[in-house]
Amino acid sequence: MSDINKKSELGEFHVISRRDFLRIVTWTGGSAALASFLASCAPLTATMAPTSLAATVAAPTATAVAMTATPSGPKILTVRMSTDIAGIDPAFMVGLTDSLVSDCVFSGLVRQKLGSYDWLKDLATDISQSTDGLTIDFTLKQGVMFHKGYGEVTTEDVKYSFERIADPTTQSPYSSDWLTLDHVEATDKYNGKIILKSPFAPLFTSTLPVNSGRIVCKAQIDKEGEKTMTLSPVGTGPYIFDSWTPNQKIVLKRNPDYFGDPGYFDELDLIPITDDLSAETALQAGELDLSTISLGDTPRFMQNTDFTVTKQDALLYYWIGMDVQNPKLADINVRQAIRYGVDVNQILTAVFFGQATRGNAMIPPGLIGYWQNAPQYDRDVAKAKDFLGKAGLKTLDLTYTCPNDTLNKAQAEVIQQNLADVGINITINQMDVAAYDSAGAGDNGKNLQLFEGLFSMYPDPAWATMWFTSDQVGVWNWMRWASKDFDALATQGITTLDSAKRNDIYIQMQQLMDNDCIAIWITHGAFVHAFKKSVTPAFTPNGQDQLWYDKGA
Question: Is residue 302 included in any domain, yes or no?
Fold first, then answer.
């Protein structure tokens, strides 16, 4: 695996991966109550190890102009971001803030609908896919202009944008979003074809409507270089990137020449505040219009009549992993004993404050592959002891490894107490985040036994399952579980276009995992937002902001 080094404006080199992006998406997407858990997304091919999280950003020292503070002046929406931007370039984004800004600044052939995973036409007036899935014909709207005088969008920009991400020499961590791209054909100025080497099912779920489907300005990059994508990105979206004061504020201004429905607000002020308490204080002080809040403080804000609170299930999956190649865990009876010995409901209360719904499999509700009838394994100490006895054991010593934060410690202690009743003695091994990122990789991963897991995903099941194929053993498949049947189904899943057939494929994949008892599933998490009564924010079904759709009440 090759490292992807992109030089920032500050002269620092950062190694980023697609796993980085969704690790930080999870971390920044809702609350610091979830922050300490590692998050990641499943790409369609292996990528490099993630880098460490950005440093905590303090609350802003200057009071931002809130939307309700200037009723006769410009309409300004002030929104908390949980991290600062790191790079707006769709080929090299790192965190959720990057993605949110990108969605406002850039357009694609299609984009997600309001409050939905479905898509609608954006830059395209027409777009259609051939019955064999190999050709996507599109026609661009005419007269759509790039920001800042860079001229009209043409099919050459589309070709450049998609092929740039797919090109191995670009070293984009998102190249697997275009895994089967052969080329983009620019038929003329406004008409083109996307030509695939083989069908690619996630194309209209997790490629074209989101980051890897964004159209960048070829003329700008040719003239100014890729580094301008951080300080002065040029797109065609409803908002123009105006300014960035690192660790203080990102300012987006409404695009007066936008080709679609104009943004409601004249200006979006995005304030990076990593700490939940600081953000909640700023919200209550009137310095923010909209903010994510912690799960622990959700009841308090729900009782405050000054705010509206929304809670939505996230596209995450939390689990307790078991290394099936470790000699102490190789017997499935031992793994069954652990599965019946752990009280998942107690974890949901102690760690998630009762605010997250239990999950019984990997793929969240609402997506292709959701296993609605997945078995729920409730705690049964007698059954757990029976399974341990079948392995010829009365007691067992194991180590549980997790990041070194308060909530992970709380989860570890629940597991430790639960399994003590079964006769399994747990030693808790907490590690700093950077060290934990590689705890299950390579030969060192062979020493792992039980561990904390949290991955995140886009709304396609392939983003979840591909971390657990055989070629990911020793990379990110920390359970070190290898199944030829699972691998074959994974390939079928990304090349099968029929939704019903895909649904069956991904349920079968989860059944294989369940049969081999490699994990204890906990929850898909939740994202909570609190906002002023004067604001009508927009969110995807999994609670991610859709800032370009935000309006006043």
Answer: no
